[in-house]
Amino acid sequence: MNSVKGTNRLILDDMGWYLKIFSYITLMLTVVYLAIGFIFDVAYSTQLLGPMYGGICAFAVAGIITLYPVAISLGSTRIQFLKSFYVISAWMVVGAMAILNVIYLIMYLLQEYGSLGVTFYQLGMLYSKEYHFISYLWIDLMTGFLVLGLSIFLTVCWIRLGMRNFLILFFGLTVVLTLAVVLSDLSVWVQWFTSVNWLALFTVTGVIGWALILCTYPMMKNAPLTMKGRKD
Q1: What is the pLDDT of residues 10-40, one digit of tens each?
Q2: Nearby residues of 86 by Cβ (< 8 Å), 6 or more positions away
Q3: How far apart are alpha carbons 160 and 222 in whole angstroms?
Q4: Residue of 49, 15, 28, 220 whose CA lies nearest to 144
């Protein structure tokens, strides 16, 4: 097995493990929510977003931290690892969102043609209250790519800057953004949210996610195998 196939196999196996684990968690939550609705005969709204988005985030962070030095030690180049990791991470998002939306579709059909009283909140509801499988799936995909991009970008910044410098930069940016929101005219934001095209907005978030991912390429192609210490 050459280094390219070995790197792909290493990342694929890890991705498959995370996808299975968080899919099982999502399915178990679905069963619990349905059981509550049937046993107590109540109608209520809940969400299944957390596990799948958490799985994407966990795979991105753990993949960069643990798989990167392993792949390099097994003969992979940094550029080769990054290319494989980006592509397989994208498939992680596609797989997770496909599974999530199939569950949503089944629940929707049970609600429309059965006696199911449990409603699952979806981000696509911001776009349309009427269920549209393709639009809802697209919105979840774009949000998944944003979560992936943020997770990879922040992890790479942590690796390259070290914990102390990363925390200083992170909290500094947080303070600036908080002040910008608090001191701005909130009526402008309210007006913007009421008139925004949510499908276009989520598409932009997906593009931002990929921009963040691609920004990590020059940061990691010559990166050391070990993270900086806490005092660096």
Answers
A1: 999 999 999 999 999 999 999 999 888 888 8
A2: 213
A3: 10
A4: 49
Least reliable range by pLDDT among 64-68, 190-194, 220-224? 190-194
- For the chain, the residue count is 232
pTM: predicted TM-score of the whole model, two decimal places: 0.90
- The residue that leads in pLDDT, 96 or 166, is 96
pLDDT of 193 reads 67
| 8 exposure class (CB count in 10 Å sphere: 0-12, 13-18, 19+) | buried
**Separation between Cα atoms, residue 161 and residue 180, nearest integer Å:** 25
Q: Which alpha helices (H) appear in the chain, and where do they start and end?
A: 3-40, 49-62, 68-73, 78-113, 133-161, 163-183, 186-195, 198-220
Distance separating alpha carbons of residues 180 and 45, to the nearest angstrom: 34
Rounded Cα distance, 223 and 213, in Å? 15
Q: Tokens 């429309």 belong to which residue? A: 112
More confident residue, 44 or 133: 133
Kindly tell me the sign of the dihedral angle through the C-alpha atoms of 58, 60, 64, 68.
positive
Give the separation between CA 94 and CA 14, rounded to whole angstroms.
16
